[in-house]
């Protein structure tokens, strides 16, 4: 596959795919449950829950930045 762009990532989220990815050597997971879950494996906290994909893309932050803004530094490690 060519470069996995943020646009493709967004489309995959909307059809229900789930992701493991890393950013600055920290691991993250996006999954589905009641809403869309966003979890950092490096923190001992419950996942953040967003009502839908748009809510996640608008409001999820890593080190204060939206996923779209750091996408070039994200490494997607698995897609389900």
What does this structure look like?
This protein is α+β, with helices and mostly antiparallel strands and 80 residues long. It has one domain. Helices cover 25% and strands 34% of the residues. It has three helices and five strands, in the order αββββααβ. Strands 4-3-2-1-5 form a five-stranded antiparallel sheet. A hairpin with a 1-residue loop joins strand 2 and strand 3. The radius of gyration is 12 Å and the shape is globular. The chain starts with 5 loop residues before the first helix and ends with a strand. 11% of the residues are buried.
Q: Key terms for this structure?
A:
alpha+beta; 5-stranded antiparallel beta sheet; 3 helices
Question: Short summary of the structure?
Answer:
With 80 residues, the chain is an alpha+beta fold. Helices cover 25% and strands 34% of the residues.
Mean pLDDT over the full residue set: 92
How many distinct beta strands? 5
Strand order within the widest sheet? 4-3-2-1-5
Poorly predicted runs are none
Total of DSSP H or I helical runs spanning 4+ residues: 3
Task: Provide the succession of SSEs.
Answer: HEEEEHHE
Q: Which structural class should the secondary elements be placed in?
A: alpha+beta
Helicity, in percent?
25-40%
Largest sheet: 5 strands, antiparallel
Overall geometry comes to globular
What's the helix and strand layout?
Layout: H1 6-14, E1 19-23, E2 26-33, E3 35-40, E4 48-50, H2 53-59, H3 67-70, E5 75-79
Antiparallel strand pairs: 1-2, 1-5, 2-3, 3-4
């Amino acid at each position: 596959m060519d470069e996995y762009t943020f646009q493709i990532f967004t489309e995959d989220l909307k059809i229900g795919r789930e992701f493991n990815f890393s950013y600055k050597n920290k691991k993250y997971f996006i999954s589905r449950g009641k809403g869309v879950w966003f979890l950092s494996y490096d923190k001992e906290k419950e996942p953040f829950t967003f009502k839908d994909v748009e809510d996640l893309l608008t409001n999820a932050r890593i080190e204060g930045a939206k996923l779209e803004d750091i996408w070039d530094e994200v490494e997607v490690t698995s897609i389900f």
